[in-house]
């Protein structure tokens, strides 16, 4: 799904490969029922070490006191729930950070999100980041392998932070929280940038891939048939000119 992932395949396979990202369907975002004095940072994913929610909690703890009107909500379930609950208590984030589980409606996490963060240590692609961009939610992501760099241009449609660096993530959170104009600008550009990942262009890429593979197979079959005919006639193939 990314050029960097392709680099891990043998050279012979890379010559025959295509890079096609996952498509995105924007979440159905419901407007707030009424104005709120509290703003929300949202993260989404399985509660496992890969997703780096422990790093996100530590980053949020660094700036929570200076941003009392912001809370953190981490949607998802998984084996790390007990450890994350303990981390929330250890960091003194009770009432500021929550783990509500899984949303009843797919994409329901986007409702009321003022800021999205993907804190993963690594990803195969990172569908949820792309969904946040498509929904026009200002977003921050670790520049982890692989996916975020393909979606986010730092400072243009979101913020990229060096992977697993908690102080840098805390600084990016503070920067976004303090600057409504920045959030608005990044959100507008995020929605526009996500259009290249809508189903139309992705389906076209898959169709072109299938057509190219079929054409290549037909060419090999034709070449094989030509060699068989030449051999049956007892004719040596012509030596190509030097």
Automatic annotation (TrEMBL):
Q: Where in this chain does the record put each Glycosyl transferase family domain?
A: 32-192
Q: What class of enzyme is it?
A: transferase
Stated EC number for the protein is 2.4.-.-
> Which Pfam families is this protein grouped with?
Glycos_transf_1 (PF00534)
Which Gene Ontology terms cover its molecular function?
A: glycosyltransferase activity
Q: Which UniProt keywords apply?
A: Glycosyltransferase, Transferase
Q: Where are the transmembrane segments?
A: none
Top-level division of the source organism's lineage: Bacteria
Per its UniProt record, what Gene3D superfamilies does this chain match?
Answer: Glycogen Phosphorylase B (3.40.50.2000)
Q: Which PANTHER family does the record match to this protein?
A: GLYCOSYLTRANSFERASE (PTHR12526)
- In Swiss-Prot or TrEMBL terms, this protein is called Glycosyltransferase
Q: What organism is listed for this UniProt entry?
A: Croceibacterium selenioxidans
Task: Recall the taxonomic lineage recorded for the source organism.
Answer: Bacteria, Pseudomonadati, Pseudomonadota, Alphaproteobacteria, Sphingomonadales
